[in-house]
Amino acid sequence: xxxxxxxxxxxxxxxxxxxxxxxxxxxxxxxxxxxxxxxxxxxxxxxxxxxxxxxxxxxxxxxxxxxxxxxxxxxxxxxxxxxxxxxxxxxxxxxxxxxxxxxxxxxxxxxxxxxxxxxxxxxxxxxxxxxxxxxxxxxxxxxxxxxxxxxxxxxxxxxxxxxxxxxxxxxxxxxxxxxxxxxxxxxxxxxxxxxxxxxxxxxxxxxxxxxxxxxxxxxxxxxxxxxxxxxxxxxxxxx
Length: 239
Fold this sequence. Notes:
The chain has helices at 11-23, 34-44, 60-69, 87-95, 108-132, 163-174, 182-190, 199-212; strands spanning 3-7, 27-31, 48-52, 78-82, 100-103, 138-140, 143-146, 151-154, 157-159, 180-181, 222-225, 229-232. It is an alpha/beta fold. The protein has two domains: 3-120, Response regulator (Rossmann fold); 134-232, Orthogonal Bundle (Arc Repressor Mutant, subunit A). It has a five-stranded parallel sheet with strand order 2-1-3-4-5, with helices on both faces. The chain has a four-stranded antiparallel sheet with strand order 6-7-8-9, covered by helices on one side. The protein has a three-stranded antiparallel sheet with strand order 10-12-11. Strand 7 (143-146) and strand 8 (151-154) form a beta hairpin. Helix 6 (163-174) crosses helix 7.
């Protein structure tokens, strides 16, 4: 069963999450602070991390940034928890590479649905890769995408993307020229869209552009189709 790491300094929250997740047969480990969470993530390489933002010492934003900067933990999905409902905190968490954001107090059922959707999506992708064999590289000028390895190279240098950033890029690049609206991307990448705002897609696209575009304000790979959505440029100029 999937292993989930809970990083939170509120013992009652940790116990609630353990109870909820273990009822669903998930394996659960926990860390009481950010530094311990970083160490445990590197040691155990969990399938998913639930990360509180408001912790003493290293807060969740700092921990998320550190996790995404390390190759061995960069691909682990992160769901952030916060007592704040401000949009700026949600956007900041997503821009740092978190996959999702849940506000306290939260519904255990809603959080569980988001966890299941994330893990289900990853399992589906892995099974698709195994059944189809090794997928060919997607090459567009100096951008190389390797779906079977979750790897992206730009100008010969490895670019580390969050799982959702990679999956958005793969969906768009595998269908060059096709326009995807935000609802379609939510359905394809997250598995369902009832609990999320379409702004989630915009935040991930913006952060993805910062990593692969020479000038994110004038993107050549991921184009915006105003009033509709996004598409991958099937004839990007040499960059």
